[in-house]
């Protein structure tokens, strides 16, 4: 009879209620299943036995065979320690215990052969090993022990309560004895054969008790593939269900608005990437499923024109469209740009933000409901209950990561049927992350810049070169250009940041005095109206220098600004540096980004700065950022919950992730309901998986 893996951990021999409570609270282990999926962090090679005269003074973990020849107690400041002399045929060392002496003294015998394992210390001319793992050689040879010893995740509390790595290994052995090491297969024969995977039972045995390094590698591959395969399967199924269940508005035709604009009013030739993305959007809008597409494109790659042309498809089919941006400044900018494009086509467009006058609001609300208003641009103000559309067919959300799920769902409910949705972001998301976190959205990428854009020249300068940088700024201003100087903003030390900004502002004011130069300043402590006023002066060209904290990170478009100076650049993350750099280079002139730092730089900071100087490809930069920071930091906690991975790592196991998505896609393409006999095991596992939130609770 097979053991039920949902059995509470308390019932496993050697655990008991006290240990069970600790394992639950510290590691979240509730059942046999959870224990089997507690995967080791690392392994120690236990194939080698050292002689005492071979030991090096390097604090390494070693194992030695020998005998205890005597015990003594040594007084110390607090209490006493127990010391044993341990000998083999090449020399003598000491074993030391600071606690648990009584038990040690009673259970260890002199003259017997033991195998000890632990970290060595060199002290007072001899080697010692504090709190060694110790067992009789006869026991050691009998145990279900492998050459590579697993080291499990632990916590301080577990160690203090005596649940050592050895204890965890012992209860893991017990679990394998009780289950006879037999586990249900969770992958179909076709994948197993194709990828030459080892069975589920072999993989679990060799992840905990690897017989050889090669079997360990095969076990890790098998379990990583499985974990990623089921995550991808989940995301793709979600996408398919979305498409089959959630009907969208079908835009049957491409009509006069789109064609007239394309033929007569398009301000520049579209890049191939823009044409490709428009085709993808067109196909979505022409199907009867609701569009749910993420549009990624680097700063300045021309996402806005793609968004506008998608709206024209909506208008051609008699629908209204809206575009929601995270800040008032950004929505004003979108409005001004799109208003220019709407004029020659006679399209009605309005702007709605928190500061729109009540009288104007009334007119907007009225025209939305009677259908006279075709396009509405705005901030969160669009989500208010008062804002009702006659027939909203397409909603575009800019900089999606700044809006929560709740806010987006409000947009969906502005209609009987949810509108088609296009989500835009200028934060390049590495492919691996996009596949894992946004795997249920269709993804389009604009990966080329419009013709005539010159790449921004990026340099790294130390604070000691500041005078040269000032001279360069004066030369650029003399040519009629404008300059940003950005200071970091770190929440914990707002006072410090404010001081940095003010000190910077004063030294810039001394170097660039009025009336020859005019400076704007923008920071988080200012009132919104003052911020907007200062921004406005800079946009109009009344000031040549804008000193600011990172409030200008998203979306401000000043084509005449050609120099971005980032102070204390080592305090910024890579994606932030890249976003800031994207604020310049929007006109036809050569633009520059200067990264200023002190001489003291950590290794990660150096990598970030070198990457910025070397590359202007947002996706390459995002990949480096992912390697440096890991997925949690990049996605923010809200999104990265999807990636509570037990064994796979989406940075290091990128290839396995791609492979798993390929198989999941192909299987669902051939057999969307998973009814073929070969896919029975997938369906069973997937159903189990829907019962339990945590992916590993269902996979074994």
Automatic annotation (TrEMBL):
Give the originating organism. Answer: Winogradskyella marina
Relate the protein's function as given in its record.
Answer: Plays a critical role in recombination and DNA repair. Helps process Holliday junction intermediates to mature products by catalyzing branch migration. Has replication fork regression activity, unwinds stalled or blocked replication forks to make a HJ that can be resolved. Has a DNA unwinding activity characteristic of a DNA helicase with 3'-5' polarity.
Q: Can the keyword DNA damage be found in this entry's annotation?
A: yes
Q: What class of enzyme is it?
A: isomerase
Residues covered by the Helicase C-terminal domain? 465-632
Query: Family, per the entry?
Result: Belongs to the helicase family. RecG subfamily.
Q: What is its EC number?
A: 5.6.2.4
Q: Which GO terms describe its molecular function?
A: DNA helicase activity; hydrolase activity
Which of UniProt's keywords are assigned here?
Answer: ATP-binding, DNA damage, DNA recombination, DNA repair, DNA-binding, Helicase, Hydrolase, Isomerase, Nucleotide-binding
**Is the keyword Hydrolase assigned to this protein?**
yes
Recorded hits in Pfam families, A to Z, give:
DEAD, Helicase_C, RecG_dom3_C, RecG_wedge
Protein name as annotated: ATP-dependent DNA helicase RecG
Q: Which residues form the Helicase ATP-binding domain?
A: 284-446
Q: Which reaction does it catalyse?
A: Couples ATP hydrolysis with the unwinding of duplex DNA by translocating in the 3'-5' direction; ATP + H2O = ADP + phosphate + H(+)
């Amino acid at each position: 009879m097979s053991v039920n893996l949902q059995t509470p951990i308390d019932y496993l021999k050697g655990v008991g209620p006290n240990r069970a409570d600790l394992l639950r609270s510290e590691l979240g282990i509730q059942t046999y299943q959870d224990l089997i999926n507690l995967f080791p962090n690392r392994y120690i090679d236990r194939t080698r036995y050292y002689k005492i005269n071979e030991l090096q003074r390097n604090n390494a973990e070693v194992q030695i065979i020998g005998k205890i020849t005597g015990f003594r107690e040594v007084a110390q400041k607090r209490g006493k320690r127990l010391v044993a002399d341990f000998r083999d045929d090449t020399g003598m060392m000491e074993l030391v215990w600071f606690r648990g002496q009584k038990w040690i003294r009673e259970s260890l015998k002199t003259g017997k052969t033991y195998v000890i394992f632990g970290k060595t210390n060199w002290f007072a001319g001899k080697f010692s090993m504090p709190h060694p793992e110790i067992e009789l050689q006869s026991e050691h040879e009998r145990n279900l022990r492998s050459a590579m010893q697993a080291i499990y995740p632990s916590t301080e509390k577990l160690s203090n309560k005596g649940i050592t790595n050895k204890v965890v290994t012992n209860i893991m052995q017990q679990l394998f004895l009780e289950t006879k090491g037999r586990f249900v297969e969770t992958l179909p024969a076709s994948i197993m054969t194709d990828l030459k995977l080892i069975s589920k039972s072999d993989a679990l045995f060799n992840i905990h008790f690897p017989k050889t390094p090669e079997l360990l590698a095969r076990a890790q591959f098998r379990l990583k593939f499985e974990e990623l395969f089921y995550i991808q399967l989940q995301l793709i199924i979600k996408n398919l269900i979305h498409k089959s269940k959630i009907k969208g508005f079908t835009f049957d035709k491409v009509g006069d608005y789109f064609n007239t604009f394309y033929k007569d009013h398009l301000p520049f030739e579209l890049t191939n990437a823009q044409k490709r993305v428009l085709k993808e959007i067109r196909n979505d809008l022409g199907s009867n499923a609701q569009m749910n597409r993420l549009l990624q494109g680097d700063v300045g790659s021309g996402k806005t024109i793609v968004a506008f042309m998608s709206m024209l498809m909506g208008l051609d089919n008699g629908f209204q469209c809206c575009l929601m941006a995270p800040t008032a400044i950004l929505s004003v900018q979108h409005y001004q740009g799109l208003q220019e494009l709407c004029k020659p086509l006679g399209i009605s467009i309005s702007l709605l933000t928190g500061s729109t006058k009540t009288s104007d609001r009334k007119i907007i609300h009225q025209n939305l409901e009677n259908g006279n208003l075709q396009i509405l641009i705005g901030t969160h103000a669009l989500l208010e209950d008062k804002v009702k559309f006659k027939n909203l067919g397409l909603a575009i959300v800019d900089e999606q990561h700044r809006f929560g799920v709740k806010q987006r769902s409000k947009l969906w409910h502005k209609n009987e049927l949810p509108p088609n949705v296009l989500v835009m972001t200028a934060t390049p998301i590495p492919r691996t992350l996009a596949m894992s976190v946004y795997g249920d959205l269709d993804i389009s990428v604009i990966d080329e810049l419009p013709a005539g854009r010159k790449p921004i020249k990026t340099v790294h300068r130390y604070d000691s070169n500041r005078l040269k940088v000032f001279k360069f700024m004066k030369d650029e201003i003399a040519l009629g250009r404008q300059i940003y100087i950005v200071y970091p903003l770190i929440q914990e030390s707002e006072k410090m940041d404010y001081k940095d900004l003010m000190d910077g502002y004063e030294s810039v004011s001394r170097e660039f005095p009025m009336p020859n130069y005019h400076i704007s300043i923008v920071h988080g402590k200012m009132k919104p109206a003052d911020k907007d006023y200062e921004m406005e002066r800079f946009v109009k060209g009344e000031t040549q220098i804008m000193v600011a904290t990172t409030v200008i990170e998203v979306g401000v478009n000043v084509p005449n600004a050609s120099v971005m100076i980032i102070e204390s650049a080592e305090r910024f993350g890579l994606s932030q540096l890249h976003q800031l750099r994207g604020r310049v280079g929007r006109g036809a002139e050569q633009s520059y980004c200067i990264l200023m730092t002190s001489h003291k730089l950590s290794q990660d900071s150096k990598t970030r700065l070198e990457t910025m100087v070397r590359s202007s490809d947002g996706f390459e930069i995002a990949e480096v950022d992912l390697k440096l920071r890991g997925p949690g930091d990049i996605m923010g906690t809200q999104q990265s919950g999807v990636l509570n991975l037990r064994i796979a790592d989406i940075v290091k196991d990128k290839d396995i992730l791609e492979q798993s998505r390929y198989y999941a896609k192909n299987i669902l393409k051939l057999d969307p309901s998973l009814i073929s006999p070969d896919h029975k095991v997938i369906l069973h596992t997937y159903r189990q998986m829907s019962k339990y939130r945590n992916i590993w609770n269902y996979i074994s």
